[in-house]
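Handout, page 2. Input:
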Amino acid sequence: MDIAKKNTAPSICFTYDNYDPILLETILPYVDFIETTPDSISMIQADDTVILQPKIIAQLKEVASSKKIVAHGVGMSIGTFDGFSKDYIKLLDSLVEQVDIYWHSEHLGYTMINGEFINVMLPINRNKENLQLICERIDYLQDRYKVPFLIENIAHLLPDYDSQYSDAAFLNEITKQTGCGLILDMYNIYCDAYNYKFNIASFLEELHLDAVKEIHLANGSIYKDRMMDIHSNAVDENVLKLTKEVLPKAKNVEIVTFELLSEAVPVMGYQAIQDELIRIKNSINAYDEYEKSTTAYS
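Output:
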């Protein structure tokens, strides 16, 4: 079935994971969505219980009157064999009880082994057993929260497994069996291409782009000849160019998110962040104007 052309460009989103009123004031004029991570906005109380930071929740409630909020998990560990993180689920429960969430998402990987956090995110083996495991968990999440769920491709820190499915085929099967959407992280595939000669063109050709609802943009650094998925800089021009090439084919993208770690905010600076949001928005709008002009004469 043909996907109808969008009438407007995707909305711009920015990550807000730390109490920073100046940052929030800086970004609000340039975004329509705010992405927040339950793991990152949590705090440990004196009795060792973990809760969401009240000050950040209050901010999210306030901006929710004019901006949409999306939740993006890091620590769910959806691919852990013996079950994903119950602590994360408690945080997500608390977030959706207090703030209206447009959708929520998680990375297709794992961060826990035998109940222990391993301080890194690793990809799962793309086999039939793990496909069933992931699909069952996504079905559970969609039933529990009653809002759309998106799964994100991750960067491969280590060389790949000998898998039964290609990266794109595995994602295609997940979306087909569960009806969930995709976050296409453009920087993650750029990292894989740099580190392991991952074939971006073949991946995008095989991927069912109509399932992509959100695109992530970021930049990191090179460490010992490896490109690291660390959200610490303005978006690489090559990543932005790749995004502009994908958007005409991914007709259901609603959000383009610029991700930046809270630790990188003082390094990059508020003005540079504002400039980067404008740069991304102008780039996306340029694509949109091109789409309108070609549609008008088609």
